[in-house]
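Task: fold both queries, return tokens.
Query 1:
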Amino acid sequence: KKSLILFWLWSPLGWIGTILTVWCALFFRDPVRVTPVREGLVVSPADGRVSMITMALPPAELGLGDRPLPRISVFMSVFNCHVNRAPVAGRVDRIAYRPGLFINAELDKASEDNERNSLVITTPTARIGVVQIAGLVAKRIVCFVKEGQSIGAGERFGLIRFGSRLDVYLPVGTKALVSEGQTAIAGETILADLAGDDPSRAYRAN
């Protein structure tokens, strides 16, 4: 309706309104995903590009210790679906929100300086940290779950409005099954396998 009013006022404004309406519809899309449910798999919590794979000290509020852990970061552009999904099945044992800056989420220091919401999901064998990080134009982080709640791998747990990033902290020794620059699909792309030492679970890089 607003776009029609803009067309009535001035045609170019109407086209701008139409484009913005279509873009918002695409941004808030929430497609169905098919999640692998094999025990030990860690799936991507976000659509986007694997921007960084490194060893990093987890945020203190996660309570995951004071030594570096394997971290996989997925950067979401303004064109990606921004619904966030649980990387593993387990219990949400901790949720901690921290206000901060809104610098470019692709920068490494965004993990420390930007506004963020951190979760710890406990599985029978591990504790996984997942952090929603606001980006340059992100102005609101939304979390759908509560502490003590059980969640399945690939289930929706939150949303970040406009370009942002998700960090996943894994147990020491966990190897990434993705590469930097690779495209990730929330709830579907396998980031790591907590049972990767099992010889019956093999993966190949192409």
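Query 1 returned. Query 2:
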Amino acid sequence: MSFRLAAYAVCIKDGRVLLAHHMTGNWTLPGGRVEHAEDPFDAVVREVAEETGCDAVVEHLLGVDSRVIPAAERNVPGDGPHQNVGIFYQVRLTGGRLRPEPNGETAESVWTPIPDVTGLRRSSLVDIGLALAQARPATGHVPPVPVGDLIQH
């Protein structure tokens, strides 16, 4: 089984959430892999800068999500099951300008009205991040988000 530790930014302002449009066609939260020996706190700030062109500060740790993606549901045929552990942070943008990720996988980043999110083909990470931001559970954990239809791994 493969494993990935990732840090994701939940950036909400004026009823809108910042979403990144991935080259696969899915919308997701800015964020990604925590590099070897990197602090997830630093990783989320780095990922926001790389993917959006904006500077960010972490305001709050929202929670952690762990999910195992069965081999049959993986994007890459022939790969085995995969575990993704995501650390979600509330962040605030402090500067920069939204732009596509140079030589990367993010085609654009867009402020999206939260009610419009349900109509987008998106990663389950978006729903998890929004649920954590809304509920602010003391445990830092929300129930798993089922995938299917517009919600993808």
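Both queries returned. Flag for query 2: The chain has one domain: 2-140.
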